[in-house]
Amino acid sequence: PYSSSFQKRCSSVMSPVYIATLIFSFIVVATFYQKRQGFANIPPGPKPWPVVGNLGGFLIPSVLRRRCGQESDSTATNAAYALMEQAKVYGNVYSLHAGRQLLVVLNGIVFAPYGPSWRKQRKFCLTTLRNFGLGKLSLEPGIMQGLATIKTELLRLSEESGGAGVDMAPLISNGVSNVICSLILGQRFHHKDREFRTMLALMVRGLEICVNSPAVLINIFPLLYYLPFGVFKELRQMVGDITAFLKRIIAEHRETLDPDNPRDLIDMYLMEVLAKQAAGEEDSSFTEDDLFYIIGDLFIAGTDTTANSVLWILLYMVLHPDIQDKVQAEMDEVVGTDRVPSLTDKGSLPFTEATIMEVQRLTAVVPLAIPHMTSETIEFWGYTIPKGTVVLPNLWSVHRDPTVWDDPDSFNPARFLDMEGKLLRRECFIPFGIGRRVCMGEQLAKMELFLTVTTLLQAFKFRLPEGVPPPPLHGRFGLTLAPCPYTVCVSRHS
Ligand code: HEM
After folding, report:
1. In the structure, what pLDDT confidence band is assigned to residue 346 with cuts at 50, 70 and 90?
2. Is the residue at 278 inside a domain?
3. Interface ipTM
4. How many domains is the chain built from?
5. What would you report as the CA-atom Rg of the chain, rounded to the nearest whole angstrom?
């Protein structure tokens, strides 16, 4: 979801005059302190470094940070955890600085700026995706087709591995991504398609270095994006490759567009662009450039999030074989073995649903949601949060809040069930965010999670390879929280 605004920002800073570093730094430092003085009553927070603010740590190599005790393995990989720890010092609402940009982090409680243009684009995307089946039973056959391939491949790879286990990440990413790709690009990709596999790998790596490497400093010094080495060069290369891939697909659609027979979101959008042009709406927010950003956002938002959620759920099943048995027993009783699970079974599988939800609670795959920005100065919990402040809602901390959840760090699906074993809706369970910017793909993601988890657990028992220790559970933070790499062995369940 970040790629679009990030690119827009990068391209808009290409000024012909590059001010000499000293003068530049002086101005930044001066303005920084001037601006800080203007912030009265903002929430408390750690003292920022000059110029870079609280992102200064990224200037120190992580080896040194670890040696000085400033970073443990888990904080390095889970920024949400680190932000929750800071709340113990500064309270549940505190402030940080990314360079001069004020950030407020909210604990315990896609980039287009909120406004009329975002509203129009979101409405268009939701209506179009619904027309093509988002949140509807009509999408089920497409999802099941992908799952059939995953089952066959998983069994084959597991047998081939000779007990060493299979890394499921590429297979699951491909299957999940094909669902959103069929809706927006009108095509599915074979799991051995090399170009598509590369795109998925680039996306994962790109999200990781955007938030968890010195590339973060591009937010303060956009010109760093053009440095010809290290993660900066790597990021530029990735953005170029993904851009070329998506632009080529858009161009193919333009050439083969049949207005009487729209195939997917790209076709619908191109028709909207043509309609606006015909109506003489020059300042329309529907342009081919916008289409590119939307497709990129949906591709990224619809793949990494859901794939990581599935991988987390399967990992928890491997680590808790008793819960895996219970889920399978419920499915044996309700679905049996003569047919594959269907969305119509959802209401009859409360323990399975509770298990999925409990893993989503513990892992919060989009732990810091998507940064928001205040469009007005507001008063919040006695603090003044100025207009233009970036607000980070720490969803991870809501899911681990001990005042809401008993023993929040333990894995206990039963917390989502009432005394009669019926599913409980818990207000503080917000893996998809809340409010106007709540996840656009929530319905789709829930369908995919349910069908993927039930279909795989109906077919297989999952376990770690013999003698292989479980991966650490803090995960890898890269905008989304992914499990650390692991392999599994599968055997037929029934
Ligand atoms: C388990 C899977 C998923 C999780 C946990 C998840 C979670 C989230 C979260 C936390 C946000 C930010 C909400 C906020 O800032 O308040 C978000 C935004 C978004 N998600 Fe998802 N998401 C998932 C799957 C999907 C899928 C499959 C799609 C594809 C349609 C999608 C599309 C989006 C979009 C477009 C936004 C930005 C909405 C806006 O800014 O108006 N997500 N998601």
Report:
1. very high
2. yes
3. 0.99
4. 2
5. 23
